[in-house]
Amino acid sequence: MGQSRISTHLGLLQDAGLVQSRREGKRTFYKLNSQAAGMEAEFVQLAIRGAKELPEQSSDEIKLRRILNRRREQAQVYFNQLAGRFDRVYGPGRSWQAFVHLLLRILPPLAVAYLGAGEGLLSELLARRCKKVIAVDNSEKIVAFGAAKAKKNHLKNLEFRLGDLQNPPVEPESVDLAILSQALHHAHEPGLAIAAAYKIMKAGGQIMILDLAKHNFDRARELYGDRWLGFAESDLHRWLEAAGFKKIEINVVAREDQPPHFETVLAGGQK
Ligand SMILES: C[S@@+](CC[C@H](N)C(=O)[O-])C[C@H]1O[C@@H](n2cnc3c(N)ncnc32)[C@H](O)[C@@H]1O
Hints:
By secondary structure, the protein is of the alpha/beta class. Helix content is 41%, strand content 24%. Helix 7 (190-200) packs across helix 9 (233-243). The chain is elongated. The N and C termini lie far apart (77 Å). The model has no long low-confidence stretch (mean pLDDT 92). Bound molecules: S-adenosylmethionine. Residues 116-118, 121, 137-139, 142, 164-165, 181-183, 186-187 line the site of S-adenosylmethionine. The site of S-adenosylmethionine has 15 residues, from loops.
């Protein structure tokens, strides 16, 4: 039967109280009315007995089981096909931003200095969790934009300050965490910037530096205004150690698929 005739028949059966329906999006699922009573219940029983006597009954049962099993397995088949490349394909609702929110939930309420902060992508995420976030940048326009956005978003604990990485306008020994993300390669003297971060941190505080690994893509200077073409892990280690940091840990944490295949280094240490 065509779809419209089936719908008409099902509609009549429902009006008579013999079937029930349930909507899921654009679909409607019908089943025999299990709550039917009296005359309707007798009709339902009669329909079941009648169906059992049909020659197609056993093959219909098998087909039904196969269809239900296939539906159940659909999700499994989908993920099995994606195995090995799952992290690289689109997944509804999956984003780095969402993962960051998850990780922030387990962060204690820290006082943070974000040095070379940019406009607020990470500062705002941090401010939703941290006690205080001081975002330092030497671009007047960026500081003004970031501050206005923080105000608009009612983030009272996020403060933008105009200043330099090498002498950040943050009180000595006042923060638990200092972050430099893609900022160190803009500093005149990266070692000085790391030493300056040490000064503003409380004892036991952590520094986290995300920057590019040393590369040869010279055009980064004109394209992105970079002063340094990334850093060797040994240089970062030397500067961190010279500043006084302990428990230094440095790893490459990401590599871009497209040329020039920039690599991101995460360097951390404790005061
Ligand atoms: C590549 S952006 C990174 C922004 C942000 N940290 C991020 O990861 O999205 C570099 C930022 O550092 C700032 N900057 C560059 N040199 C600086 C310096 N000497 N002192 C403070 N900020 C600086 C720039 O204005 C810019 O906002």
